[in-house]
Design a protein that fits this description.
The structure is a homodimer of 340-residue chains. The first copy, chain A, is α/β, with parallel strands linked by helices. Chain A contains 12 helices and 16 strands. Chains A, B: Its cofactor is Zn(2+).
Chain lengths: 340, 340
């Protein structure tokens, strides 16, 4: 099959590799219908991910059709259209039971999924069947977001305690930040402030329900957020970038007693909690336990209550994957969908 | 009146100062029945609190009897026995409404309360009347803990989301840590692990409901906590010290997806959130908004459901206040009660 290889930083190649095989009774093999490029794929693409001397497969978000299942697999069968959370998990261990599927004792990551076929371990615990067989083509991008980016935005909102009536600010206008806006509105936020400087992303933010846009940053940006939120700051701030600056921006924009939900993998983001201590500002979040949220989110996508796939602004054939990385690296695209 | 003055680090003197007066219509003057020494008073006592070139009044926890009230005060009157949260607040502003009385827009601290009389601004919003007039002497220590130490332990538990069935570990066996144990059990924790090396404090921990004691620290201590909590770590860890080491101990002892509630003012506690991110471990808490909790906690003290005053192991006359500081500084006492 064809598979995307990061041969060295900045160099993406589509190569022919052996088809994956079932290796245990609980595996499935899934034919990829659509995959995409994640902001986090850009870290190794940019050479910022530790030792990168070896070529590696890449990609972790996909939807597809089950091709084969191991003998122990009962919840999906060949022909099922499935969503694959970006990490696999057994959905039964003590940590899955507590909703932290990302820390599943039998969990892990795929070998890569910007390709044609993926072996999915723990298929019963991982794959979520979409009822009704292969869906309408127009629905595929929305379903694809359920493998990572939309539940990640949702996780930021849940971690920050967003509920009916909450005031919310979102730091970061990438695909995750935009998803967080949609998730916050879905959870009933009364006011969502998008912090964004890009006209096109502001437009999606508005479509997703943002009530206000703040273009300034730093103290000025935090002051604008305060002004919009009754003079006190947002109840919940969703940090969707992962740098020291963005985390600081989030803390500054939160009201005393409020909460920051963070889903951007922290890079150089060490901080002294003393300032937050005086203001009772909390921090929660992390790698999104996607599987936990799918039973709640999938129906809203199937019923077109939400259209999270609007974050995709570039659709490419898998053959063009290198162009996709370039476009995201150069910020010409927010999120790239790949069709094998 | 007599009042405690920290004349310079390590030097506590009882001096005569002018009696406080009503300065606004919303003030009250309260005659102190009992006050106490807080762990946080030891920071300036030890010279670790910035510029300390000037002598200063000290103390912030007390209960007493109202002597005088300003014309606008309606909720308390002379003769009432009251609990004074360690910060005053109006109990009506947008932040008080959201339960963050410590960030009240009209709030602040007292001039000191290890003395005989205290002026309490925002008396209506701050003071909580104990029904039935001056209480039985045996009840006074328990009521006194409601001004700071017990609600602070409670705030750690609330911030960490402790509820019925939670597994909890408490880092720190000072008066706040012990209070946190009692608070966690009161909220329904199924298992509370006290991390303590002091036999006498372990005994209070047991009385307060601790189910297990862990004497080791670092990785070994975290491993012991994991072993007690089904192999995964505690749902909630209550950090009641405030150093970098204690915060690290708390993070290590928390299960993936769990929460650290912290109430020890952080000193040299900067940290990189990346490790917590992968494990979805959150951090919340801060300066305890005592006033928020008193309506809930006071009835349990009056009904002797809880006896938080057992943290006091040294009762002194106000004249002996310098001995009290010495005893706490040298860890000969856990918490000192002072009677004017």
């Amino acid at each position: 099959m064809r598979a995307t290889i990061l041969t060295s930083p900045g160099s993406i190649e589509l190569q022919t590799v052996p088809d994956p095989q079932l290796t245990t009774d609980s595996d499935a093999v899934v034919r990829v219908v659509a995959s995409c490029i994640c902001g986090s794929d850009l870290w190794p693409y940019r050479g910022l991910d530790g030792d990168q001397s070896e070529p590696r497969r890449i990609g972790h978000e996909f939807v597809g059709v089950v091709e084969q299942v191991g003998r122990a697999v009962g919840s999906v069968q060949p022909g099922d259209f499935v969503i694959a959370p970006f990490l696999y998990s057994d959905n039964t261990c003590a940590l899955c039971e507590r909703g932290v599927h990302t820390s599943c004792v039998n969990g892990g990551g795929y070998e890569g999924c910007q390709c044609e076929l993926v072996r999915v371990p723990q298929a019963d615990g991982t794959l979520v069947r979409v009822p009704g067989g292969e869906p309408d083509e127009a629905l595929v991008p929305h379903l694809l977001t359920l493998s990572d980016v939309f539940p990640t935005g949702h996780h930021a909102a849940v971690s920050a305690g967003v509920r009916s009536g909450s005031t919310v600010a979102v730091v970061g206008d990438g695909a995750v930040g935009l998803s967080a806006i949609l998730a916050a509105k879905r959870l009933g936020a009364s006011t969502v402030v998008a912090m964004s400087r890009h006209a096109e992303r502001q437009e999606i933010a508005r479509v997703f329900g943002a009530d206000a846009i703040v273009e300034t940053r730093g103290k000025e940006g935090a002051a604008e957020v305060r002004e919009i939120t009754g003079g006190i700051g947002a109840d919940a701030v969703l940090e969707c970038v992962g740098t020291g600056d963005s985390l600081k921006q989030a803390f500054m924009s939160t009201r005393p007693g409020g909460m920051v939900g963070y889903v951007g993998l922290p890079h150089d983001a060490a901080f002294d909690p003393r300032g937050n201590f005086y203001r009772n500002i909390g921090l929660a979040g992390g790698v999104a336990p996607v599987r936990r949220y799918l039973d709640e989110l999938l129906p809203d996508v199937l019923d077109s209550v939400i259209e999270p796939g609007r974050v995709f602004d570039l659709m490419l054939d898998l053959d063009e994957v290198a162009d996709g990385y370039r476009a995201m690296d150069e910020r010409q695209a927010t999120k790239v969908l790949l069709t094998p």
